[in-house]
Structures are given as C-alpha cells and as structure tokens.
Task: structure prediction
Amino acid sequence: MASATEQAAGHAPGGQLRAPARGAALGEIGLIPRGAVAVAGERIAWVGPEIELDARVCLAPGARVLDAAGGSVLPGFVDPHTHIPFAGDRAEEFGMRVRGRTYSEIAAAGGGILSSVRAFRAASRDELLARGRHALDQMLLFGTTTIEAKTGYGLTTADELRALDMMAELDRTHPTTVVPTFMGAHAVPPEYAGDAAGYVQLIIDEMLPAVARQGIARFCDVFCERGYFSPADTRAIFAAARDHGLALKLHADEFEDSGGAALAAAAGATSADHLMAIGEAGTAALAASETIPVLLPATSFFLGMTRFAPGRRLADAGLPIAIATDFNPGSSMVASMPLVVSLACLGLQLAPEEALVAATRNAAHAAGVADRGVLVPGARADLQIVALPGVRHLAYHIGPSHVTAVVAGGRVVVEAGRIVSSR
Result:
C-alpha cells in the first residue's frame, strides 16, 4: 500500500480498466490529492483518498506500508518499443554522426543494424543475458516495470530463436515484465545481400513456423522502409505471421512517408512505431483504426535530428499516442522513460499529463498488456513512488531518476532507490 500527496491513477468510475486514451482523455490523469493505493496479491484492490483508507481497507497481518512522504504515486512505466538483448556497442557510429554522417550512410558502409548482428552472433548466451539484465536494472530504477522487446540482431532462424529464449529467461528472472516480439525482418543479413526476396521467403517458410513452435513471441514486427523491407514484403510477412497466431507491429514511416502507417492500420496491427515522416493519409488511416501510434522522441534526439514525429498533430487528430525509448545500441541508447516523457513534451509538443498517459496507459495497450499502466482496482499492481510533488515535475526535471520505490506484481522490488528483489 502506498499513500501520496498526488497520484496519477488513470482512475475510472467503477474501477474498470479502460481503452487507450485519445482526444481530451489523453490529458486526464485522475489526480487524487493525498491519495492511497491498496494492493492484494498481484492486483490493485482499492484506490482513493487516504482519509477513506481505514474505513475501506483492512490490512492483512504483516502487510507492508509505503509512505510516499510528499511525493507522487504513478503507474509503473510501460516501454512498448525496445531492442533487447543485444551485444557490443556502436559508440564509433555516434562519433561519425556527430561529424555529419547520416544513419543511411553509416549503414551502407557496413555499420548500423548489421554491425549489431555481427556482435550478437559472436556473443555467448551468458554475455547477452548479463547485458539484458543490466539494461532491465537501469530501466527499473527509472520506474519501468514492463517492456516490449524485439529480436532482429540474429537474422538466422537459430539466432532469432535464441534471442526469444533469452527474452523468456529475462522475463522469468527479472522483476520487469518482458513482452517478446519476433523481428526477423529487421534487416537483410549479409548472406542474403542482393537477394532480399530470398530472405523474405526464409522468414515466411522457416523462421515464422519455428517461432510459432517455440511459443514465446507474441508479436511479429517488420522494418518497412526503403533499403530494408518494402510494403509488399511487409504484407507477405504479416499474412504468414497472422497464420501462425502472432499479433502485428510495424516500424513505419521513420525516414520517409512510404505508406507504412496506412499499411499497419489496414493489417490491424497493434501498433505503428516511429512515424517521424507520417503524412495526412497515414494519420487519417490510423485515426479510423485501433492501431496505436508509438512515438520515439529519444531516437530523433539521439540521432541529432531536428525532426520529431508530429505528436501534437496526431494527438489533435484523436489518436491514442504512446511513447517508448526505442532502447538499442545504434539509434537510441536511452533507457530512461522519464527522459522520454521530457522529450515528448519538448519534441512532440505534448503536455506533461499527455506524455505521462502515453508512457503508461496507452503504452500498456501498445505492448498488449492492457491490465497495467493505470492505478485502478483489478489492474496489475505495478507502480512507482517518485520524490516529486506533481506530474509536471516529472517532465520538468530532465535527466535524473526520482524513483524511491517500485512495486511490480504486488512486490516491492526497488526501495530507497535500490533494487531489492528479483523475480
């Protein structure tokens, strides 16, 4: 149980879990001054004013009581777009970009995703798991309790299955929930250079059946962009993925408007991600669908770009925006969701309240875990206590973590700013 002076609850009348927020609801965070949250098992049992607590809640013997001490209680962040696990780093590329080389130029010279593919294939399981746990530790200390993680650095059937198996182990052994996504269509591997069609056929004929038999992945994602996978490739992979029971995600319209957003909407994808170059037709297609736009302002920031996704335009069009870190070694070495909240305000022109909803309630829907990201009865008890007096301070204080405690699945896993429990 945690009491607080201000609470971003995403509270709903009758305690019902709600659909993603859009329109005016995107900025509604359900503040309860001097609020309290009661937890039973892995679920939230009651939320309301602290003055009503004694009359509404009977504490079990030995129950833990956490005092927010003038801070705020928020839902745990949900990060619906990451690329964990990976090996090595691409710090050299960072320096190249600072000196004026573009993402595409670096990739054409043998860097980019294929650099991470070489490192992943050469790395041991122990090394990859250690890197993954370290990344999840960082995220947890910033208040993130659930992530979606993508494969795509193996690009062989065996290595893609290996990545999914490690995601499952990280999910079992770390307090952070890991939602696994198969992304064999992240890049064309070097052994298929000049034969992208052959690699797409490998994904359809061999990788997807093997992924389905393994039974770990929940989603299939494709990088639909010039130089990677075409809209026709994407449709073929999506059709096969649906046949194997996988939900869909799409890297769409990152560098140019290729119609990726409209493709995602037509395919019934759970989310369309990036969208820095989305046009009016793509916006209209998403607005008429249930597909959630996941915007990645840290990627624009990390790549030194002046162009961000048109967050304000998408929000004003009534889209249920979510935000994510895009944590990966090449284009967004950013593990902090609070930083992404700040960048969503500065780069996407969202209000602090909208950015918080995009990082919690809407992000949970984008990751396919709609039972979290809100503080309402029946929701999974994933929450954080931050030493800040209000939600606007979360975006205003750029950089450090203000987390003092984190509860994941009803268990205290961070206390006094330190991780105190594993899964």
Observations:
- Confidence is low (pLDDT under 50) at residues 1-16.
- The chain has 16 helices and 18 strands.
- The first helix runs from residue 53 to 56.
- The two ends are 19 Å apart (CA to CA).
